[in-house]
Amino acid sequence: MNTYRNESARKRLDEWFIRFCERIDSPFESLEVPTRFGDNHVLVAGPPGATPIVCLHAMRTGSAFLVSELNPVLDRYRVIAPDLPGQSIRGLETRLPLNDDSHVHWLTDILDELDLGATKLFGVSWGGFIARQFSTSVPGRVEKLALLVPAGIVNGSHLTGLAKMALPLLRYRLWRSPENLRRLLEPLFSSWDEGWAQYTGDAIQDMPFDFRIPPLATDQELEDLRMPVLALGGSDDISFPGKDLVTRITALAPNAQGEVLQNCKHCPPLTQNFRSWLADRLVTFFELGDDGELRVSG
């Protein structure tokens, strides 16, 4: 299945991908990495000799979008960001099943091709679901797991989400205007960024919707996360309520810590202050040793 509606949509979405690449404050490179599902685009940024972290983006975005939000860590880490199948204009044009090990095999192939053994793993929203699924299935490949508003841990009320989103979505698709776009994104965006907003508006029109909801992890699957886990939820996230998310994963995963981000909807703040805060939080989590001492990556 194509990740775009027609050729004009493909070009428009790829232009957005390039624009977000221009937001990245580090030299970066694009790789085509073979997997059993086909060659997969991977964006790599940060110093070549730095510690790698594998980062999985949210649905209907792409590697460039996530990496541009991680600028504050790009002087410290080698960020490796694959484009998720079916969820990025640069990704594989297929939607892998959610209830089997397809995504686990996909990510395993990428790590193997890039000669990565156990690695630090960070996933956002849909990417958080894949990161958790991978960590449960092959825990030996994950040193530490960080999740930001991840799918697949808890679900919000479908009725609440429908009430807040259905009418604004219909209105925007019929009458594209700045006012209708703002009404549509208000329940999702913690802060306003014109580039992100305009991209999301185009993606709504140009990318076929994936109406699937990632299945919730079982208690056993969360108990099997033996590595250190950091879970960050949004207090006002109507998709995956942050308090319930943090409560569940910290109760079941034996080495999990969590934090509910206040005044945070499903899309966290698109501000420099939040980017810097998130970078500091990730560095502290990834580098803190068992003795409580902060390690220095090199």
Task: Describe the structure using short key phrases.
single chain, eight-stranded mixed sheet, 10 helices, 39% helix, globular
Compute the number of strand runs. Answer: 8
Uncertain segments are none
Q: Count the DSSP helices.
A: 10
Looking across the biggest beta sheet, what order are the strands in?
A: 1-2-4-3-5-6-7-8
Q: How much β-strand is present in the residues?
A: 15-25%
Helices and strands: which structural class?
Answer: alpha/beta
Average pLDDT rating: 95
Please describe the biggest sheet, giving its number of strands, its sense, and whether it closes into a barrel: 8 strands, mixed
Q: Please estimate the helix content.
A: 25-40%
Radius of gyration: 18 Å
H/E element order: HEEEHEHEHEHHHHEHEH
Short description:
With 298 residues, this protein is an alpha/beta fold. The chain has helices at residues 7-21, 63-69, 102-113, 126-137, 158-174, 178-185, 194-206, 219-223, 242-252, 272-287; strands at 28-35, 38-45, 51-56, 77-82, 119-124, 142-148, 229-234, 256-261.
Task: Describe this structure as you would to a colleague.
This protein has 298 residues and is of the alpha/beta class. 39% of the residues lie in helices and 18% in strands. The protein is built from ten helices and eight strands. The chain has helices at residues 7-21, 63-69, 102-113, 126-137, 158-174, 178-185, 194-206, 219-223, 242-252, 272-287, and strands at 28-35, 38-45, 51-56, 77-82, 119-124, 142-148, 229-234, 256-261. Strands 1-2-4-3-5-6-7-8 form an eight-stranded mixed beta sheet, with helices on both faces. Strand 1 (28-35) and strand 2 form a beta hairpin. Helix 1 runs antiparallel to helix 7 and helix 5 (158-174) runs antiparallel to helix 6. The chain is globular. The protein starts with 6 loop residues before the first helix and ends in an 11-residue tail after the last helix.
